[in-house]
Automatic annotation (TrEMBL):
Keywords on record: Repeat, Transferase
Domain of life: Bacteria
Record protein name field: Sulfurtransferase
Rhodanese domain sequence ranges: 37-124, 155-260
Residue ranges crossing the lipid bilayer per the database entry: none
Organism listed in the record: Dokdonia sinensis
GO terms for MF: thiosulfate-cyanide sulfurtransferase activity
Length: 266
């Protein structure tokens, strides 16, 4: 079974493995600061549904498959994904691959900052063409919650919705970063700011994560993870996946969709 997290030392020792593909999923990608051989995974422009007005919307299987093939990814590839914040966009990419049926995917714990802090070199990224891969996207829709799913769950309360935004945004006392979008919370949801599961740009230990989640009222309920636009929700999803088996779902539209659509339908 592929590890959810790998260390920078592990990556350095396995960097030239024939089946390993390293992806830089930084939101503010800097081609002058990349790990050797890393390929740019462009969440915003290539691996999102650009026809959807919501930010970072989950792509179709066709879009995802084509994008992965263009990056030279094969069905046999072990993917290691990182970002230049430490842990930020990389868990989103990890979840996307899992949702499209590719389990051989890991997140580089600590990302590029940890890589550089360990004394490992970075290089200028290249635009060299790679041989087209044979990656196949097989969507598991159970991993994605829709607006309608969240509406139904408010009534049934079969699942627990965990929001990764800051406590101020969740409580409605701090503004949303998107103009004209009110802050607040979805009914019956609970708050776990994504920063709570991280320390110095890495995930906290499994014992610490166990303590964090044990304090939440989630016993007996399957979790649905949410945030502002589906990015940081995946940070706490991966944290929970490190200590708990079973199904885990992301509300992809997250607060941006919920606040917008409820404003329109009220």
């Amino acid at each position: 079974m592929t590890k959810q997290l790998v260390s920078v030392d592990w990556l350095r020792n396995n960097l030239y493995n024939d089946h390993l593909i390293v992806l830089d999923a930084s939101a503010d990608y800097d081609e002058t600061q990349t790990i050797h051989g890393a390929r740019h995974f462009d969440i915003k422009n290539t691996f999102s549904d650009l026809n959807n007005p919501l930010p970072n919307s989950f792509p179709s299987p066709e879009i995802f498959e084509k994008g992965c093939q263009n990056l030279g990814i094969n069905t046999s590839s072990h993917i290691v994904v990182y970002d230049n914040k430490g842990i930020f966009t990389s868990p989103r990419v990890w979840w996307m691959f899992k949702t499209f049926g590719h389990d051989a995917v890991s997140v580089l714990d600590g990302g590029l900052p940890s890589w550089r802090a360990s004394g490992y070199s970075v290089i200028q990224g290249t635009n060299e063409s790679v041989e087209r891969g044979n990656f196949k996207a097989q969507l598991d829709p159970r991993r994605i919650a829709t607006f309608e799913n969240i509406q139904a769950n408010i009534r049934s309360q079969d699942s627990i919705l965990i929001d990764a935004r800051s406590s101020g945004r969740f409580r409605g006392t701090a503004p949303e970063p998107r103009p004209q979008l009110k802050s607040g919370q979805i009914k019956n949801s609970i708050n776990l700011p994504y920063t709570e599961v991280l320390e110095d740009g890495k995930y906290k230990s499994n014992a610490q994560l166990q303590d964090i989640f044990s304090e939440l009222p989630i016993a007996g309920k399957s979790p649905i993870f949410s945030c502002g636009s589906g990015i940081t929700a995946c940070i706490i999803l991966l944290a929970y996946d490190l200590i708990s088996e079973g199904s885990k779902t992301v509300y992809d539209g997250s607060w941006t969709e919920w606040a917008t659509r409820n404003h329109l339908v009220q």
